[in-house]
Design brief:
mainly alpha
Length: about 240
Amino acid sequence: MPVDEPMPAPTTLRQRRRAAATQEILDTAESHIAEHGAVALSLRAVARSLGMTVQALYHYFPSRDALVTALVEKAHSDLADAVQTAVDTTTEVGAVPRLVAAAEGYRRWAVTRPEHFKLIYGTPLRSYAAPAGGPSTQAVLRMSAVFERELFAGYTRAQLAAADTPALSPPLLAYLEQLSPQGQESLPPAATSLLLSAWGHLHGLVVLEVFGHTSFLGDHQAEIFRMAMRNMAEEIHGRIPHA
């Protein structure tokens, strides 16, 4: 007979209250960033909004950096979720290719939450450095895996290895050989270079829009972005030989 897995221990009232308070602090800090920007974030301002003392807030986040790290991790995770959701809720039957849908999910999250996008991709906060690894890195890898899968769906490793790309220097080839965008099996160097180029194209257009540099396009920005993503996908796919 199969052995029943032990049931997880129930959380205590104290743990539930701490989790609820921590979430309320994060929600308040996110609202503060949305209204004032990340550079204006302070424990004192968050505590004041919650009607608590800074000393009490220290019980949940011992420093401003700890709070910023939690917000950065949440923003990366929310963005990765938005990209995955965009892919999961689209079909390619007479609609938008899944790769373009993923890109549009990325853009949509960024333009609707510009200050949170700037928190993770804008000017770094002075004296703050996000810890290496951890939830943020995992969220980025998860998002990268979505774009990798949708960009190269249907192609074999041999086809990806034979992609037509500009000559890569020996040092770059060696580096790309061991670089794994999704944290698992690495792509052939040619495919990795195409994926990085696609990321730069996509992200660059979103950054320009979030920072207001394409506002002259008005309500046409979404259409321009979709056209650019379609063209990018066609150009990359044109570099990969057919079976």
